[in-house]
Amino acid sequence: MASGTGEVSKKLKLYSNWRSSCSCRVRIALKLKGLDYEYIAINLLKGDQKSPEFLKFNPLGYVPVLVDGDFVVADSFAILLYLEENYPQHPLLPKDLQKRALNYQAANLVSANIQPLQNLPVLGYIHEKLGPDEEIPLAQTHIRKGFATLEKLLENYAGKYATGNEVFLADLFLAPQIDGAVRRFNVDMSEYPILSRINEAYKELPAFQDAMPGKQPDTPPEARA
């Protein structure tokens, strides 16, 4: 594990991987809320997540992990809700209960029904059992199914962003998922006009763009934006 800053430890520490969409969600939130943090890179390909040091933070061996003083929280959804409660500046959840539920639904659709089916352990299993040529097609199938569902879910609510004209929780899940679908899995976004439109809006937001995979301390040179 390597620090991405080389600076003295700060209050918040984020154990992150440049390409992890789960980590990206948290990076966006930290930037939206104006929270300074130390970036600690976890190289998933080298197995940093399996080290005894990291497993003390998250026995499951997944990123991201946030350390706030002497408190440790893993899992992006849990981290985001913790940040929302503990650092209320720039709220990630709307006050309206129904819109809040919509944000939970869209976020959960990504985190439970799309992203887990394209992560490294699953792709590795597909590679081993079915062969390398099946990895991308199977990931694309699940992404397309999820995106089609999101289009229907958001069609009566989306504005400039996913659930209106303000950035909320759903956007933090959608932005990295769409970015990964395009860059990593070659998904044709022309079939998803709502998601394509709001993705263009994300490109205008520094907090989003600075958190994207191509701009992280551990991003390899060939993947830098």
From TrEMBL:
Residue stretches making up the GST N-terminal domain: 10-91
Keywords: Transferase
Database matches in InterPro entries: Glutathione-S-Trfase_C-like, Glutathione-S-Trfase_C_sf, Glutathione_S-Trfase, Glutathione_S-Trfase_N, GST_Zeta, GST_Zeta_C, GST_Zeta_N, Thioredoxin-like_sf
Cited CDD domains: GST_C_Zeta, GST_N_Zeta
Residues of the GST C-terminal domain: 96-221
EC top class named in words: transferase
Enzyme Commission (EC) number: 2.5.1.18
Catalyzed reactions per annotation: RX + glutathione = an S-substituted glutathione + a halide anion + H(+)
Gene Ontology cellular-component annotations: cytoplasm
SUPFAM superfamilies: GST C-terminal domain-like, Thioredoxin-like
A single MF term (Gene Ontology): glutathione transferase activity
A single GO BP: glutathione metabolic process
UniProt cross-references to PANTHER family, sorted A to Z: MALEYLACETOACETATE ISOMERASE
Protein family (similarity comment): Belongs to the GST superfamily. Zeta family.
Name used for this protein in its record: glutathione transferase
Organism of derivation: Olea europaea subsp. europaea
